[in-house]
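Customer escalation, tier 2.

The customer says the design service returned an amino acid string that "doesn't look like it belongs to this structure." They asked us to rerun it and document both sides in this ticket. The original structure tokens are below, unchanged.
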């Protein structure tokens, strides 16, 4: 029998592929300038977009372990397997924000400047929402966040 994750992967496959086929997403994930735009300005633009993405990823990933632990502590006893998975995953994810800092360093971004900076409004809203879901809403809702983080790494 397929796991929940395997069923999820199968169910969303057409929409994920549609997203992944977007030319901007392809260029972004490929680390290159937008298709047909090989000039240095376009390449610098994509570098800036990628750097901003990584900076926001740092804040998102840094909060993830705490969010998963909070959610796991609130999952009902009837969903013990999910509770156990979230708590285990919170420990597993701890420190992964350091990997994002390593990627930023490779782009010439100072680690300390990232740690001292603020996330974008959009990232701040996402992280705040995840804390809200984990602490006040249905903590199982954090599983969607884990899927996104794991899917982008």
């Amino acid at each position: 029998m397929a796991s929940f994750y395997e069923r999820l992967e199968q169910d969303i496959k057409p929409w994920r592929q549609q997203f992944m086929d977007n030319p901007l997403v392809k260029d972004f994930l490929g680390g290159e300038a937008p298709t047909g735009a090989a000039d240095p300005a376009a390449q610098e633009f994509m570098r800036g977009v990628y750097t901003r993405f990584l900076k926001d990823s740092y804040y998102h990933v840094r909060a993830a372990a705490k969010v998963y632990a909070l959610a796991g502590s609130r999952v009902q006893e009837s969903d013990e397997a999910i509770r156990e998975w979230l708590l285990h995953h919170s420990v597993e994810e701890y420190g992964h924000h350091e990997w994002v800092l390593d990627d930023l360093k490779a782009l010439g971004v100072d680690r300390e400047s990232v740690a001292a900076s603020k996330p974008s409004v959009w990232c701040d809203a996402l992280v705040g929402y995840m804390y809200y879901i984990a602490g006040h809403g249905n903590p199982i809702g954090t599983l969607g966040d884990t899927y996104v983080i794991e899917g982008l790494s």
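Tier 2 assessment: The sequence is consistent with the input. The chain has a mean pLDDT of 85. The chain is about 75% helix and 0% strand. Sent an explanation to the customer and offered a walkthrough call.
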